[in-house]
Design a protein that fits this description.
about 80 residues; single chain; about 35% helix; 2 helices
Length: about 80
């Protein structure tokens, strides 16, 4: 079976897994979603949409995962 990498709307390959230290336009897409989803959370650090998945992104993703699954590990994608 041929493995097909998913692609974003611009045709760039999506990384199979994103975690702290990941970079690129797809990271910004995830951060935009998390920023909107967690907008009411005053205890989370401010997210900066700079294409880098940093500590603030990890905090926001872990909060999302804790509420929605899967197990909160701060990473996005198949482990």
């Amino acid at each position: 079976m041929k493995k097909v990498r998913r692609r974003d709307p611009k045709g760039e390959a999506l990384p199979p897994y994103m975690e702290e230290g990941s970079r690129g336009p797809v990271v910004d897409e995830l951060l935009k979603f998390l920023k909107k989803y967690n907008a009411h959370e005053k205890d989370l650090p401010t997210l900066v949409l700079d294409g880098e998945f940093g500590p603030a992104g990890t905090a926001h993703l872990t909060r999302f995962q804790a509420r929605n699954g899967p197990t909160p590990d701060g990473g996005r994608g198949p482990n």
